[in-house]
């Protein structure tokens, strides 16, 4: 009888213990010290929310499934954003007071899903980041930190030219972006993991196009590559300064692009040969490949 009673009380004890470790403020769950935002209620109907100063961590999936919130302001005190923390929401604008030291994966969304984000803004007292025409950069404008997915809003032919002076494209900076073409400046020297993980395009059935269509790179020396920033370079046309074309064709990773300045690469040809069901078609004057 005592064992049965203890077994029945255990779930209640767990709930009570959890309640002691968290606090709910206007539909938002925080750790008891209010340093971690754990969950923003999916039912909370406010269109704007300012994360309180003192908050240091936004937990993974914290804002997921809330389709009401459109404008989110992040605090100066923020140090970490967890995986998918801002994904799966109706957010249109994020206002950054600081860019955290720790950034999780796919913080505003996974490429398989569309996003509503159209602008990243900053305030005058932002410590380490700045908004340039709605795109988030480091304060010195040398690192591109985040590109709002629907800023251009055209996955078939949309184009974005990264400003001169930019040196680094950070991890997943273009996650979910609705663009097809990117122009890299002559100053770029490093491109990080999944940087151009643009939104997947699904023309028919279950087939997907996960990569950009064209990349224009103005730098003479091929930039350093971290991981696999272009996802499927074998299906992307690359254009570089003509005097550097052979250098790109003989540089690891860059030589994997389908064509360089219109000339097919060995890696691109080999990849196409391995696919027995590769199809292509013209749409808006752009050659599109589908596996």
Automatic annotation (TrEMBL):
Residues 1-19 form the signal peptide. It holds the Pfam family LRR_5. Gene3D superfamilies: Ribonuclease Inhibitor (3.80.10.10). Keywords: Signal. The keyword Signal applies. It comes from the Bacteria. InterPro entries: LRR_5, LRR_dom_sf. This is Leucine-rich repeat protein.
């Amino acid at each position: 009888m005592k064992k049965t009673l203890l077994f029945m009380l255990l779930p209640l004890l767990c709930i009570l213990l959890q309640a002691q470790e968290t606090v709910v403020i206007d539909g938002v769950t925080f750790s008891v010290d209010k340093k971690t935002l754990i969950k923003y209620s999916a039912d909370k109907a406010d269109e704007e929310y300012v994360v309180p100063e003192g908050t240091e961590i936004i937990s993974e999936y914290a804002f997921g499934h809330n389709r009401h919130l459109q404008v989110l302001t992040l605090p100066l005190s923020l140090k970490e954003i967890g995986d998918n923390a801002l994904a799966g929401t109706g957010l249109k604008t994020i206002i950054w007071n600081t860019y955290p030291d720790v950034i999780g994966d796919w913080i505003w969304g996974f490429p398989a899903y569309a996003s509503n984000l159209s602008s990243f803004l900053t305030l005058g007292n932002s410590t380490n980041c700045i908004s340039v025409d709605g795109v988030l950069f480091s304060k010195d404008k040398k690192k591109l930190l985040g590109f709002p997915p629907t800023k251009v809003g055209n996955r078939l032919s949309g184009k974005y030219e990264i400003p001169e002076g930019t040196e680094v494209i950070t991890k997943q900076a273009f996650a979910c972006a609705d663009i097809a073409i990117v122009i890299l400046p002559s100053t770029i020297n490093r491109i990080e993991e999944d940087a151009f993980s643009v939104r997947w395009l699904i023309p028919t059935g279950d087939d997907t196009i996960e990569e950009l269509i064209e990349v224009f790179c103005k730098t003479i020396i091929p930039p350093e590559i971290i991981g696999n920033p272009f996802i499927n370079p074998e299906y992307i046309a690359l254009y570089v300064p003509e005097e550097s074309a052979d250098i790109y064709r003989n540089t690891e990773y860059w030589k994997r692009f389908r064509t360089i300045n219109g000339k097919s690469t060995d890696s691109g040809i080999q990849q196409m040969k391995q696919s027995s069901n590769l199809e292509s078609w013209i749409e808006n004057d752009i050659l599109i490949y589908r596996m």
